[in-house]
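Hi all, a correction to my earlier message: I attached the wrong file for DUF1858 domain-containing protein. Here's the right sequence:
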Amino acid sequence: MAITIDSTIAELLREKPQSAAVLQSFGMGCLGCAIANNETIREAAMVHGIPLDELTKKLGI
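and the right structure:
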C-alpha cells in the first residue's frame, strides 16, 4: 500500500513502523491514540500545527 498524506496514522504505522519515531519527534502522541485509526496524516499535521511538507519529508512520503 502506498502511503500518502491522506492515509491514516494507523495505516502509516502499519506500513512504516519506523515512522513512530518521526511522529514522536514532532510531539505527536499518535501511537496509542484512538483517533489514529481515522485521522489522516494531513489532518494530524494541521491539528498539531506542523508544516505538512516538513512532516512528509521526514516521513519519506
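Sorry for the mix-up. The first helix runs from residue 9 to 15.
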